[in-house]
Amino acid sequence: MIKTKTAFGIAASVALALPVLAFAAADQEAAMKDSNNWVHPRGQHNNQGYSALAQINKGNIKNLKMAWTFATGVNRGHEGSPIVLGNMMYIVTAFPNNVYALDLNDNQKIVWSYFPKQDPSVQAVLCCDNVTRGLGFGDGKIFLQQNDGLLVALDAKDGKKIWE
């Protein structure tokens, strides 16, 4: 009887969550159709890291020069690729997993930032340094998986925490 109730509870939770997940996925899919956006850690779901943009090519790549930099103040590995959506770039640091939203049309101005509160002792049990693999996007939210295991949804426009 307990197994049946547990199975029913899990099935009901999944059924209620599916419409929310489907909407978030549709939001991401729509954003991916614009090749100027980079809303998945590897660009698209196929994980190739390929951009269809043609401004940089084999003939002119040797002429690239750094245009700007942004220092996060965190001196650990930054392994998560940024998310670019329209004129906004979202980046996340290694522990303590600070998130920044930068306006690419306004001299990379910080539009908002989020500084999570985490117990520093979590660093002792992290594998492979104190890094994160990046942010997620969907349903108008930026998703942060903190090193302490907490999943946080931030409003992509203003950075306010929606839920955790």
Polypeptide structure, described:
This protein has 164 residues and is α+β, with helices and mostly antiparallel strands. The protein has a single domain (2-163), classed as Thrombin, subunit H, CATH 2.40.10. 19% of the residues lie in helices and 21% in strands. The strands form two sheets. Strands 1-2-3-4 form a four-stranded antiparallel beta sheet, with no helix packed on it. A hairpin with a 5-residue loop joins strand 7 (151-155) and strand 8 (161-163). It is globular and about 50 Å long. Residues 16-21 have low confidence and may be disordered.
Brief account:
The chain is an alpha+beta fold. Helix content is 19%, strand content 21%.
Number of strands: 8
Task: Kindly provide the name of the CATH class.
Answer: Mainly Beta
- Report the β-strand fraction as a percent range: 15-25%
Strand order of the largest sheet: 1-2-3-4
Amino-to-carboxy terminus distance: 32 Å
Domains (count): 1
Radius of gyration: 18 Å
How many distinct helices? 1
- Stated plainly, the CATH topology is called Thrombin, subunit H
Identify low-pLDDT runs. Answer: 16-21
Q: Helical amount among residues, as a percent range?
A: 10-25%
- Could you say which structural class the secondary elements and strand pairing correspond to? alpha+beta
Average pLDDT number? 84
CATH architecture field = Beta Barrel
